[in-house]
Specification:
alpha/beta, Aspartate Aminotransferase, domain 2, 3-stranded antiparallel beta sheet, PyrdxlP-dep_Trfase_small, cysteine-S-conjugate beta-lyase
Length: 414
């Protein structure tokens, strides 16, 4: 049963924060906060006692039944060495990936261009290691997810940051600012694109993507396009794969994705890179094996099941996330500004009007017992911000919002 068709009798009563009643999903809204607190994954393991966790990008929901069944079949079958080898020709995910991209986004991906990595960060680092030299710069938008910038600095590919701007109707990504950065740059070889964007939730429009594509051609850039949140785009917004803009762009684009966000599989450790440049595919294949690590058979089984048979489950999750993002927008404490994300389950909260300092995360952790993601971790543009993960049950989300209200009211911030 989808979240949007749950009987009206399952509505919750209104609560002190003044939220509208929420339709209850029989599985996703049945989460036990005590059971969540006992989880040993990073999201909950790092939460102090009696603290609700809403920071890292994991959903609280159980995995899709089809994924669970696929893992059990694999466990009961053969866990020996696989016949496929890290995404080279004959690997089990190429055809599944191509069929999914065509079905959901109208993009004719080439199955033999797919290569497997353990996660998106590793794919990015490996591609940069092979396609660039130390000292070559990478242009990307900020605020940026912390591991991306950390990895660029660690491998000596200096990040050239272009801030996303706030407009009257939300966040805007201006290709002209990217152009100005590239014109001033020395040895910039790569455009790193995160679309949909994390942490703002912004989905790039076709004209914006075409502007960036023109820059990539003009400056002879490799484009690494992280599209891991694409499956969670909220209507009426539409995700457009960067590589779908035309043959010239596809030939210089590496599309990276995984099931970590849409299917809650971050711990599975399996990501895919659809590599357009043939010389880059050859370079990856020449170094395949232990140098870049190998994904396991359980990881491939899980992602194959998600992409082939997970759409019904995903539709239910998207309905619940849309409900939660609207609930969040209506229930945030006065003084917190935010633009409802166009994709995903992460809300970028501007707490500067409340006077909570550069890192509001500390206030909410200490006084509300709510663990958010520290805004300054995303770069200087994150000062005064915090990121909230709303991929949880209505009850847990309501408690998070109530705690934030109470803490701010008690300490005179609202």
């Amino acid at each position: 049963m989808s979240a949007d068709t749950t009987p009206a009798a399952d509505f919750e009563p209104s609560d002190p924060a003044g939220h509208e009643p929420a339709r209850r999903h029989p599985v996703f809204d049945a989460l036990d906060p005590d059971a969540l607190a006992r989880r040993d994954g990073e999201k909950w393991a790092y939460a102090p006692e009696d603290t609700l966790s809403a920071w890292i990008g994991d959903m609280d929901f159980p995995i899709a039944p089809g994924i669970r069944a696929a893992l059990i079949r694999r466990i009961d079958g053969d866990l020996g060495y696989p016949v496929w080898f890290d995404g080279t020709e004959g690997a089990p995910l190429g055809e599944v990936f191509a069929a999914r991209m065509k079905r959901r986004f109208g993009f004719a991906a080439e199955p033999t261009h797919l290569r497997l990595f353990t996660d998106v960060n590793q794919a990015m680092s490996a591609i940069l290691h092979l396609a660039t030299r130390p000292g070559d710069a990478v242009v990307l938008h900020t605020p940026a997810c912390p591991p991306f910038v950390d990895d660029l600095r660690r491998i000596d590919r200096p990040p050239l940051t272009v801030p996303i701007e706030e407009g009257a109707h939300g966040w805007t990504l201006d290709p002209d600012r990217v152009a100005a950065t590239l014109d001033r740059a020395d040895r910039c070889r790569v455009l790193f694109l995160v679309n949909p964007h994390n942490p703002t939730g912004r989905v790039l429009r076709r004209d914006e993507l075409e502007g960036l594509a023109e820059l990539a051609l003009r400056h002879d850039l490799l484009v690494i396009s992280d599209e891991v949140h694409a499956d969670l785009t909220h209507p009426p917004h539409v995700h457009i794969p960067f590589a779908s803009l035309g043959p010239e762009i596809a030939a210089r684009t590496v599309t990276v994705t995984s099931g970590s966000k849409a299917f809650n599989l971050a711990g599975i450790r399996c990501a895919a890179a659809h590599i357009g440049p043939p010389e880059l595919r050859d370079a990856v294949d020449a170094r395949r094996g232990l140098l870049f690590g190998q994904v396991g058979v359980l990881a491939v089984a899980a992602l194959a099941a998600a992409w082939a048979d997970g759409d019904a489950w995903l539709d239910e999750v998207r309905g619940l996330l849309d409900r939660n993002r609207r609930r969040l927008a209506a229930g945030l404490p006065e003084g917190i500004r935010h633009h409802s994300p166009e994709a995903g389950f992460l809300a970028w909260l501007d707490c500067r009007p409340l006077g909570l300092g550069d890192d509001p995360y500390v206030f909410f952790r200490d006084h509300a017992k709510v663990l958010l993601f520290s805004g300054p971790s995303f770069g200087p543009e994150g000062n005064g911000f915090a990121r909230l993960n709303f991929a949880t049950s209505a009850g847990v989300l309501d408690t998070i919002l109530n705690r934030m209200h109470t803490a701010l009211r008690t300490r005179g911030h609202v």
